[in-house]
Amino acid sequence: xxxxxxxxxxxxxxxxxxxxxxxxxxxxxxxxxxxxxxxxxxxxxxxxxxxxxxxxxxxxxxxxxxxxxxxxxxxxxxxxxxxxxxxxxxxxxxxxxxxxxxxxxxxxxxxxxxxxxxxxxxxxxxxxxxxxxxxxxxxxxxxxxxxxxxxxxxxxxxxxxxxxxxxxxxxxxxxxxxxxxxxxxxxxxxxxxxxxxxxxxxxxxxxxxxxxxxxxxxxxxxxxxxxxxxxxxxxxxxxxxxxxxxxxxxxxxxxxxxxxxxxxxxxxxxxxxxxxxxxxxxxxxxxxxxxxxxxxxxxxxxxxxxxxxxxxxxxxxxxxxxxxxxxxxxxxxxxxxxxxxxxxxxxxxxxxxxxxxxxxxxxxxxxxxxxxxxxxxxxxxxx
Length: 383
Hints:
The protein has helices at residues 25-38, 58-61, 83-94, 105-115, 137-153, 162-170, 193-199, 221-236, 255-265, 278-284, 299-306, 319-323, 336-348, 350-364, 370-381; strands at 14-19, 48-53, 69-72, 99-103, 124-129, 156-159, 176-178, 206-212, 243-249, 269-273, 287-290, 311-314, 329-331. It is α/β, with parallel strands linked by helices. The protein folds into two domains: 14-182 and 368-381, 3-Layer(aba) Sandwich (Rossmann fold); 193-364, Rossmann fold (3-Layer(aba) Sandwich), CATH 3.40.50. It has a seven-stranded parallel beta sheet, sandwiched between helices. A six-stranded parallel beta sheet has the order 10-9-8-11-12-13, sandwiched between helices. Strand 11 (287-290), helix 11 and strand 12 (311-314) form a beta-alpha-beta unit. The longest helix has 17 residues, at 137-153. One of its GO terms (molecular function) is glycosyltransferase activity. This is D-inositol 3-phosphate glycosyltransferase. Residues 24-182 form the Glycosyltransferase subfamily 4-like N-terminal domain.
């Protein structure tokens, strides 16, 4: 058939994208790249794109009337008795593809098993790893086995952060590189700084620190509370001259725990719940903070950079790959004292905040866009 990527007037490349249960970020990424791959050359690949995944995601992944088609496959986030049937279903779909691109460790494992059963010529297998495996000993043990299957069975393993790429190489991946994820569109605040501060009932001498994210263990929110307490103590002891409100936007399984612990510690933290005005909060913030234990290519930090917010973030996973060395102040994971000190220093120095804001905007302009992602996949998909 020849190389369809080098012959746009010849047979169209047939691409199958596969994903399992998703909290949203992976599904949005797959929908975005599926549409881009199906777009005509030169901006897209002009490919025939099919997406396979849980039925509930179908409308988002392949809108009716669009160029992308969808097939429901019940890929869950944990092993289950029906996985044998899922493998057979994926085998049938993969048999008509030139490239099968799976997203996530579970989906990647099932795709590797399915494509081994396809008669020659087998499709090229690409797996993107979006998260670091976390959990108890049993979960980590199962994940380590799945990582071996993916690393040794895929033609190329992409990781959203450099540490995921290194893990796959250590487990025997033949080809691996950092996955490019397109930066989000530049957010546009709808309310000015003064309006946000009025809504939060802030006094003139109160600084606003903002964190946005799911209230889940990955976000390091107990460390956030400890850092907030240290900031509050600095004010009480006269080591800082501005009171602080640390506003946390988001919901999740730790909400009750964080509310109880914050009250017990008398931390200057307000849990705002899920918000639809995140750009307004970022634009009004004196400092934006991420205390995450691990991140891939964090969307929230990218949006904060685009808005020119001074950012303090833990040097976790792929965060540095997003911020660069100068786009944010990076501190060690889990170090509440270092986080509090970095925030306090920025709050005390308007000049440093302004310089960091300028560096944030400059870094945001360097982040990959959708065209960069298509170019990477064009190369990775080529045989």
